[in-house]
Amino acid sequence: MSLLFANYDTSVKPGCQQGPIVVTVGLAVRQLIDLEEPKQILYLNTWMRLQWDDCQLRWNSSDYGNISTLTLPYDRVWTPDITLYDSTDGEVGYLKEYRVSVTSEGKVSYNYPYLISATCQVDVTYFPFDTQRCPLQFGSWAYSGLQLDVTNRSQAGDISSFIANSEFHLDSIPLERHELYYACCPEPYPDVTFYVIVKRKPTFYVINLLFPCILITSVAALGFILPPDAGEKIGLEITVLLALAVFQLLLSEAMPPSSETFPMIGVYFACSMVLVMLSTILTVLVLNVHHTEHKRLPKLVRVIFLDKLARVVCYKKDASVQPQEDEVPFNRSLSNGLAHSYDGKGHKEKGINRPHLPPSRSDNSKAHNESSPLVIPSEETSSSELLPLLNVLQEHLDLMKQAEERKDQKQEHEHQKGEWKKLAIVLDRLFLMLFVLMSFITSLAVLVSLTHQ
């Protein structure tokens, strides 16, 4: 050992060979700890594998008892400053606690565990069916490519010892070697970049986020089925809108605050909120139509909605009972008969028979005393004696006519009110069909986009 390290300086790169020192870099991923989307940081438990030739660490194994391999402390040999460029912890991966293996031909191997904390730009467009591609760029920080040539040890990263993650599936770790020129220096700086490709397991988010959102949006359709007299249509729509807002808040907390990429599921939540908001507005419109009473339904609206669209939405219009024109009420005919029998002075009109009137008080007394039948006054009876009785009858007939007019007005009012209620039912069913159609199209478009990325 004393002879091997007699003139060895660990702080200086070995310079006994022509050209740069070739350092091979390998990476084995042991565990994916976490991918923190809001901060866009990837946490990995990895095994780093570095290898290079040190011409000053060569010996003849036969001269030293056939010792061909030495395991030395980290600080006894020179090690290249291979650094993860996009690390967030600011520490070099290898530590002094781990030892270096040196062979008699001067090959140095340095294998050590490395907890990687690196930046990873997360694309959440297809969340939760997304695939992330996180680059890990390894290279020398101090030596250029003319002094230290960094190259890959294998064609891809090693995932044979990977421990399965509950949220992500590690698909593969392809790698690429680059030679980059920076503005500070004219020399090239080679690096080896490993691309960690992980796919999210969507089951958890589908069951706990996407599926409840679809159910809540479907509940909004019940607002069009609920009768307007129930008084809970607006409350139901507002409750659904608030529930969607809560799910939107939960989604925003799990996503990075970026405007470059926005998840499709967030677009679906936004579209669902717009649909529920429109359904709330349409529900208010239906309630206004339902409670309209003192206006006559326009003929054009009646033809379009109650005659044509009613059949489209499968609404069977009830046959309205209209009074027959040839039916004349009894009190109206009687009123007309009395009104035309006598004029204002009690004289008989020409061509019209006078109605039979009861006898006077004296005649009644005489008739009762003699037990004679009812005597109808003759035409010679004075009209002045019948005029008060005719006036009383006329007043009663006027009251009956007013009552009949009020009844007709009430029937007309009920008829108008019924037409507005029928219009509200037709609009409810029409809006229900449109809401279901738009919800189906939105859900289908988002799901197809998510699953066929």
TrEMBL record:
> Where are the annotated segments for Disordered?
344-380
> Which Gene Ontology cellular-component terms appear in the entry?
synaptic membrane
Record's keyword annotation contains Membrane? yes
Q: How does it sit in the membrane?
A: Multi-pass membrane protein
Per its UniProt entry, which superkingdom is the organism in? Eukaryota
Principal location: membrane
Tell me where in or outside the cell this protein is found.
Synaptic cell membrane
Q: Which residues cross the membrane?
A: 204-226, 267-289, 430-450
Which of UniProt's keywords are assigned here?
A: Cell membrane, Disulfide bond, Glycoprotein, Ion channel, Ion transport, Ligand-gated ion channel, Membrane, Receptor, Synapse, Transmembrane, Transmembrane helix, Transport
- Locate the Neurotransmitter-gated ion-channel transmembrane domain: which residues? 210-445
Q: Where is the Neurotransmitter-gated ion-channel ligand-binding domain?
A: 3-202
Is this entry keyworded Cytoplasm? no
A Gene Ontology biological process in which this protein takes part is:
monoatomic ion transmembrane transport
Q: Per its UniProt record, what InterPro entries does this chain match?
A: Neur_chan_lig-bd (IPR006202), Neur_chan_lig-bd_sf (IPR036734), Neur_channel (IPR006201), Neuro-gated_channel_TM_sf (IPR036719), Neuro_actylchol_rec (IPR038050), Neurotrans-gated_channel_TM (IPR006029), Neurotransmitter_ion_chnl_CS (IPR018000), Nicotinic_acetylcholine_rcpt (IPR002394)
Q: Name one Pfam family in it.
A: Neur_chan_LBD
Q: Which PROSITE patterns match?
A: NEUROTR_ION_CHANNEL
Hey, which family's this protein in?
Belongs to the ligand-gated ion channel (TC 1.A.9) family.
Which PANTHER family did the record assign?
NEUROTRANSMITTER GATED ION CHANNEL
What is the protein name given in its UniProt record?
Uncharacterized protein
